[in-house]
Amino acid sequence: MRFLRSLRSVEMTAYVILLLMLVSCGKNIDYLGIFYTGNESPDERFAQSMSYNAEHGYDKITGVPDDYEVYVMSDIHVDFSTDNLDSFVSDYLADTVAAPFALCLGDLINATDHFDYFAEHVQPVTDAGRKVYYTVGNHDLYFDQWPEYFKRFGSSTYWFEVQTVSGNKDLYIAIESGSGTLGVDQRDWLEGLLSEKHNQGYRHIVVFTHTHLFKKDTSQGHTSNFNLEETYDLLDLFDRYDVSLVLQGHSHSRDLTTFKDVVYLRVDALEDHYPDAYYTILNVGRYINFEFIKVN
Asked: Which residue has the higher pLDDT, 112 or 164?
């Protein structure tokens, strides 16, 4: 018994030493953050997002063609170069039939203190009178960077409506999954919103978030993956309220899964130096189709 206690003590000491070594290894990977989000909990971040929404309201985009394009990017991981991000912005602004908004599914940055660099390179979108809608990724939370994200990009849980020239309505819902869970309050908000909007005549309901629901490999290890119980719950929720499409990122590789008539699209990474960097274009009309644009 004494031997076992000594062994456990040695194991715990080794574990603590390993964690301390990992924490000091660099500014691009928050090793503790992979397992534990430091300051704000998902419920606390959700509360801040709701306060932001109460002050700023929810957008309604009108006058959009009945068939329109939505540009989507994810996992840009900006550190010291923005070549692929610049290509996305340039292509989007050159596309005269694109909707006046784009979507970003999180992991904007890869290192600390780079939100300003990212924001600088998407500023032309704002200057052109268009908008990017964001939600937070796990890398955006590393090194306790949520306050900086929130200051620059605002709420990470919200909805907006698109109304076309013929009166069609599409609903877009951003949910925050940077910690691999919605938390209790956000999940209840989501069901309440879907229940409220379900019978209001929307052509499509599109949900977008960072962490994907179908884990098909071990590429992400322990980093912010939904547990099975929450996955089952969300799959049931999206089916019950006739969600058309769930957009996700996180794993840097494309996957298309249809489950109970809901389409789950995991999009590619836009990260520089990534061998297969793509962004996605949604073609939204009676149906939603996809194009995948390689940028390097």
From this structure: 164
The total domain count for the chain is: 2
The pTM assigned to this predicted structure is: 0.87
216-223: Cβ within 8 A, 24+ apart? 216/255, 217/251, 219/251, 219/252, 219/253, 220/250, 220/251, 221/34, 222/34, 222/35, 223/34, 223/138, 223/180
For the segment 102-129, what is each residue's pLDDT rounded down to a tens digit?
A: 999 999 998 788 899 999 999 999 999 9
Domain that holds residue 23: 1-36
- CA distances to 232, 248, 278 from 254, in Å: 21, 9, 9
**Domain match, 13 and 89 both:** no
Task: Check which CATH number belongs to the domain holding 229 and give it.
Answer: 3.60.21.10
**pLDDT over 90 (residue 189):** yes
